[in-house]
Amino acid sequence: MNRLRLRWIILVASVSLVAAAAPSKWIEVNGGSWRLDLSMLFEVQAALRSALPTADDGKLRKWDAYTYQYQGKSSVLGNRYVLVNAFCSTGRDDNQMRTEWVEVYDGGTCYFQVEYDLKTKQLRKLHVNGEA
Which domain holds residue 40? Predict the structure, then answer.
């Protein structure tokens, strides 16, 4: 098999895996300290997907109910983490969500924020919005 054909097969398989693993929508917010590559994004998604059913005492909604914003951040000490903001709905378009974080101060389990620590491979600082 020639190399070009092999690369094409790998590309098609990768795109299929992305489509199969993708939730409703993941949007990177501009202005982060660094950009995630695809393998890092899959790592964050896998950690969140496995934690979602039991997070907040099992009260969070199903995986595909959310749209996810994310951004690569660095702490003062230089540790890298991913900030994730999840929400059920918004009146904003994708371009606006690439430049502004969706901020809602109530709304219950329809809105939550969490950090993913790349060094420890763990989610931390889960905050689920309250109900007004």
Answer: 24-128
